[in-house]
Amino acid sequence: MEGNSTDTYTGNRGLRLEEPLIFEQDAPGRSGVDLPEPPPVQSRLGGLDRPDAIGLPGLSEPQVVRHYTRLSQKNYAIDAGFYPLGSCTMKHNPRLNEKMARLPGFADLHPLQPEATVQGALRLIDTLAHWIKTLTGMPAVAMSPAAGAHGELCGLMTARTALEARGDGRKRVLVPDSAHGTNPATAAICGYAVEAIPLNDRGRVDLNALKDALDEDVAAFMLTNPNTCGLFEDEILEQAQAVHDAGAFFYCDGANFNAIVGRVRPGDLGIDCMHLNLHKTFSTPHGGGGPGSGPVVLSEALADYAPRPWVVHGEDGFSLVEHEDEAAQAAPYGRMKAFHGQMGMFVRALAYMMSHGSDGLRQASSDAVLNANYLLASLSKELSLAYDGPCMHEVLFDDGFLKGTDVTTLDFAKAMIDEGFHPMTMYFPLVVHGALLMEPTETESRESLDQFIETMRHLAKRAKDGDAQAFHDAPVHTPRRRLDETAAARRPILRWRPDPVQGEAAE
Amino acid sequence: MSDLKYSKEHEWIRLEDDIATVGISNFAQEQLGDVVFVELPEVGKQVVQNGDAAVVESVKAASEVYAPLTGKIVEVNAALEEDPELVNQSPTGDGWFMKIRLSDASQLDGMMDEAAYNDFTASQS
């Protein structure tokens, strides 16, 4: 990628520093570790001795510290500013969670320790499971799945196991167009044929199309609720009835649970299984701050088919059911992963729940919905709303307001970066043209929302006033200008090479 | 190009004897943006009308390409694996996806000609 064109001698801008790759800073002899020469020993490597240098870069400690500090300063995070990435629920991670997770009694555990020495940890898992079951109104939860998509797989595998236990080899899974993209992938990896269900003109699942598609060959219907248009599926009870009448299971993608915590219990809606992303709803870190955690709640019909392990209250305290012979279930299918789940995320999620209380969780959901509707009400004149509100936790606009301006959703997003905002989700969901999906979460103050709204109004006006070139040039204030996403996808350079043909296409 | 037929899913079809060459329309490639990857079916695979046949991935999204007609895949455009940009540069020419030996030529009757397809896309955008 071409470097930044600046008018400074160094290429730096103020105190924002250009930083080469660590391998490009390699200089032999810089490493600061001073070890004595090893005594001569006979090689026992059987001729497999490394014939050449290992290829690690040689740098001094301050160089390494500066390298990673500078890279970290280029990172944008919820800790740095507004992050309205729709469908991702980029909410603040309270520092209390981190403090609790670092308590040595939680942080230093090993999953193979004797149960008698980890009673507190088992109690924590059990307490978190209790909160999750209570908030969702479901009788059982599988805690071990390692992420949201892993939780989806867990839910569908549980449903498939239950179907197979009754000798029912169904082949299809129905997924609406407004579902998260991982849903059809999960169904496919679980061996099912995926069939899309269209939306109605209100942005909800077309109930008649669902009924038409349901038959004795459908294993499950996978709904995302609230859906990726940011709308509550207000015919969900009818959907559940139709799904159950066909003998299928009702899967709900719970990634958007942050919109309804403390207000709606999925168990009351006829849902059979639903995963929760602890990092979305219960404020554990996203992505690089992870790992993820995706517990799955299960209805009475599926509870007996949950994967191991789970915590039980024994005579001598808590214990884990880990093995087939300990399980009283009908037909368990084993386990989703080694060990018990992401303990560090369990601690953070429970810290969040207990510090907020049930009233605080309800308030957080309400504020998330209020904030999204504040954006909807403030921007529906300048931008073009995809579906009539009110919305839930996120608001979906299409690119109708950019029609005739020669500015695309992508250009608009790049201009937002220049204004200091992480862009919203773009071009998703696919059901609307040039989608702009904004999710402010409960984290944002009135002041930060107002600044965002005024910025959006300014940019929309600028686009309509015919200043398309400025949008095509954006971003101009970033460490790098617009990246060539096409070349990056078509001919990715996947590793650094020491030879002089750097920049040529790699495999 | 008036010999092309179009499906509502934005595939075009060019029929020669009982072999239908299939690709995605100019409108579809414009909507997708720069195509970065194409996954083609295996030669010999049976495809059914409106069933999955290929996948096209752009910088914006990954989309299914449906078989507009029922039949057997007799040839695929292997050049797309190296040069997916052919789909953008020449959607109805070098950017073709696959050739299908038709089972039922009457399925073509439901397809649009170019003028009807242009009206259809005008109503969509």
How would you describe the overall organization of this protein?
The complex is a heterodimer of chains A (507) and B (125). Chain A has 507 residues and is of the alpha/beta class. Chain A has 15 helices and 13 strands. Chain A folds into two domains: 95-352, 3-Layer(aba) Sandwich (Aspartate Aminotransferase, domain 2); 358-490, Aspartate Aminotransferase, domain 1, CATH 3.90.1150.10. Chain A has helices at 61-73, 95-101, 104-107, 119-136, 148-165, 182-189, 207-213, 236-245, 278-281, 300-303, 343-379, 409-418, 446-464, 468-473, 485-490, and strands spanning 140-142, 172-176, 193-197, 218-224, 249-253, 273-275, 296-298, 310-314, 317-321, 384-385, 395-398, 425-426, 436-438. In chain A, β8 (310-314) and β9 form a beta hairpin. The model of chain A is unreliable at 502-507 (pLDDT under 50). By secondary structure, chain B is an alpha+beta fold. In chain B, the strands form two sheets. Chain B has a six-stranded antiparallel sheet with strand order 1-2-3-9-8-5. Chain B has a three-stranded antiparallel sheet with strand order 4-6-7. The longest helix of chain B has 11 residues, at 114-124. Chain B has one domain (5-124): Beta Barrel (OB fold (Dihydrolipoamide Acetyltransferase, E2P)). The model of chain B has no long low-confidence stretch (mean pLDDT 91). The A-B interface holds A 426-428, 430, 433, 485-486, 489-490 and B 34, 36-37, 57, 59-61, 63, 84-85, 125.
